[in-house]
Structures are given as structure tokens and as C-alpha cells.
Amino acid sequence: MRHLAFVSLAACLMATPVMAAPQATDVPKPVADSGQSGRAPKAHYTPVEAASFAKQIERDLASRQARVALVFRAGKPRDQLPDNVPYTHGAFWVYGDIKGPDGKIYKGYSSYNLYQGDGVSAPLDQSYLAQDFPLDFISANQVDDVGVIIPSPEMQRRLLALIASPTYERLHVPSYSLVSNPFSSEHQNCTEFLLDVIASAAWETSDYTQIKADLGAHFKPTVIRANIFARTFGPMINPRLRLDDQPGRIETVTYESIRVFMSDNHLLQTAYVIPRQN
């Protein structure tokens, strides 16, 4: 019966229209990227390419029976990112009921994000939680691939329950930094938020102080190289680059450090990269 349920998942998704799917003349709405870039300076894909890639990812996840996955995109071209930071934004993709533009209920994936403020509707140094769709997520990607982490079946079950609970919002720290320290509760970015939610589900606690203490013992962060100029003048140039929670070397959370953490603690089903099909 469980196998049949997942066959049904994939079959339903094949028949599901892309939510807010564009026509050839439509322009995907810009989506704030909570990583190393703000809003994408220009679209990397045509509207049709973005819709096609979003559907490609959804079908891949469904074929792997994923009800919850972590998907990562890059808000800048790779040559503008540090070598050890291939992606700048990650979100939970959750399979479930979606209300389509026709008012009908479809099965498909929604993305659950922490987005940085755009300086208009919210300050640049603040963040907010938002739910949107794969097309919105992919429209801000500046490269031709995404990183994927699929949690173990038990972790998917726990994450589904946590995301639907008040604990999910309580784990959000509105004060935003591009390179927030995963061991500090002062600031947060999208990848640290993902890590905090994963840790809360893994250790079955909503105690934020305890989560940070446990991460200090079990999580190995990504180290970002920064010279003295960036440390001193970065916050003046970009209010999102706040380093007051970084007492020594700059440590943050990335796709790779989350993958290693989940693998080391037996929370991982698989992790891989999906290249866009032409």
C-alpha cells in the first residue's frame, strides 16, 4: 500500500499543472534571494525555461518518493561566489494540496522559505517566512542546476509535522545576516534557518538555546574567507553583511555543511545535483 501511495504521488504530479505557470509572454515574478545576492539582477531563464525546470525538479522529487526535500539555488553566477558556496538560498519543498488558479485542489510541491527584506516592504537587515511555488523559487536561480537533499523517511515525517506546527515560526530569527553564525542566536539567514529546523526535528526539541548548544557539539560549519577590509567596511557597504556574531573566523551554513551534518547523523536519504535539461 505504501508503494502504491507513492506511485499515486508521481502520477498525480504528472497530471498537475505548474502553479502559476506562465505563458510565453509572461514574466516570472522576482523572488528575494536570502543568500549572497538580493533580487536577481536579471532573469537567467525565459519564462518557459523556468517553468520547465521547476516541473523537472518536481518530477524528480516525486520519482524518489520525497514528501519533503531541501532544494538550493544560486542567486549569482558561480564566478561571483566563493568556491565553497555553490548555492546561496535553500528552502523546504513540501508535497501536498495546492489550490490552483482555477480554484481546484491539486497535488504538488510548495516551497517554504526564509527571505531577506528588499528594503521597501521590509528592511534589508530583516527577514520573513514565506510560502510560494517551485516556479517562483527557480525564477531567481542564476545557474543551470540546483542542489537537493532528501531527508530519511523518518526525518521527512518529523519535518512535515514540525513545519505544520507553531514551532516552525518560533525558530525564525528576524534579524538577518548574509553570513550568520550557526552557533549564535543573534542573526539568521535561510540556510541557518533550515539547519535550525532540521536540528529541532532531529532532536525533538523546540528549545532554541539547547538547539544551538547541540549544534555546537555536532555541526561543522563552512568557513568563509574574508580580509580585514570586508570585516571592517562590509556592514557599512551592505547592511545585510553583519559580522558582529562572528568573533573569529567567519563561519556559516551551506548546502555542503548541511549535507555532511545530515549524513553524519543518519538523517539523510540522498543528496545530489539536478542539472537543467535543455
Give a brief outline of the structure:
The protein has one domain: endopeptidase fold (from Nostoc punctiforme). The protein has helices at 2-15, 47-63, 134-139, 153-163, 166-170, 190-203, 208-218, 228-237, 255-264; strands at residues 68-73, 89-99, 105-116, 127-132, 145-151, 222-224, 250-252, 268-275. The protein is globular, with a radius of gyration of 18 Å.
Can you walk me through this structure?
The protein has 278 residues and is an alpha+beta fold. It has a single domain, classed as endopeptidase domain like (from Nostoc punctiforme) (endopeptidase fold (from Nostoc punctiforme), Alpha-Beta Complex). It has nine helices and eight strands. It has helices at residues 2-15, 47-63, 134-139, 153-163, 166-170, 190-203, 208-218, 228-237, 255-264, and strands spanning 68-73, 89-99, 105-116, 127-132, 145-151, 222-224, 250-252, 268-275. The strands form two sheets. A six-stranded antiparallel beta sheet has the order 4-3-2-1-5-8. It has a two-stranded antiparallel sheet with strand order 6-7. Helix 1 packs antiparallel against helix 2 (47-63), helix 4 crosses helix 6 and helix 6 packs across helix 7. The longest helix has 17 residues, at 47-63. It is globular, with a radius of gyration of 18 Å. The chain starts with a helix and ends with a strand. Mean pLDDT is 85; it is low at 20-32 and 231-236.
